[in-house]
Design a protein that fits this description.
Distance between the termini: 83 Å
Number of domains: 1
CATH topology: Rhopdopsin 7-helix transmembrane proteins
CATH architecture: Up-down Bundle
Order of helices and strands: HHHHHHHHHHH
Number of helices: 11
CATH class: Mainly Alpha
Shape: globular
Largest sheet: none
Number of strands: 0
Low-confidence stretches: 1-11, 239-243
Helix content: over 70%
Length: 343
Amino acid sequence: MDTLFMNKTDVDNVLLCFPNQLDSCPRLQRFSVLKGAMYGFMLAAILMTVFGNLLVIFSISHFKQLQSPTNFIILSMALVDCLLGCLVMPFSMVRWVEGCWFLGDFFCQIHSSLDMTLSIASILHLCLVSVDRYMAICDPLSYRMKVTNGSVAVWIVVTWLFSCLFSFGIVFSKVNLIGLDEQMLNSCVGNCVLIFNKEWGVIAPLLNFYIPGTIMSCLYLKIFHVARKQAKMISDRTAVGLAGEKNQVSEQRERKAAKTLGIVMGVFLLCWLPFFLTTVIDPFLGFSTPVDVFDALIWFGYFNSMFNPLIYGFFYPRFQKAFRIIILRYVCRFTNSSNLVLQ
């Protein structure tokens, strides 16, 4: 009798996502302080992602000096990252903190599809930027002929279409769930988790991370090698009397190239590699990764969209000046900002 009473009490104390439904998923029980800290941290990340990328979008759209093929790729990438911050991250935040999905199965599929679409598109845009920079530095003579606004627009459209069709196709066809039993699917009401079987757990990361990441790594290594070689050639042509200044300029260029490329690849790998490693390994381990760990890895990937404006915006002087003009003129309403001109 005591045992039955204790079991009934334990069941009554369990918080459910939907208390009126017997097949509801259990709701995560967290301390209020922890929930407040999680909400505060993720809201700050969302705001930085949205407004940082809006600043990039407005800068390129407003200043003609920034409207180049390279910056059109960055503009499209900023749009992707901004949409991720607006349409995906807020719902992922509530799902992680509360441990529940409150919007039903159909919107769960929409959210999962958009999550995949925008995350993949962001990664592929980074790959496009690396290809563009490789052609500009390693083949500068034919760069202006091959890389035009039209050709860049085509590649941007292809990137968006591939990301959208791939993601929505997988989620709505449920090909990623073939062969998984009901216990693995955890089909209680209030659950919204995108999982992959062994086949798609390898195919999806391979197409959308490992191949683009390998291309980026190889191209940036080649760019760094060529940049060092060009700096040395320029240095050798400098007058002998300016040898000290020559070496200093050469070393500064090499350090700047190494720093920029190192930050680009370091942030990209730091944000996305843990998630995609887990995505590949988890199906072979019986989906044993804790939900909180998996959600944390997803947010590490989201942070790449927050860092993109910093990497591709704040590291370039023209973007820095454009941001300063926009903030002073339109945010702070600084009257003397009309005297500032982007050169």
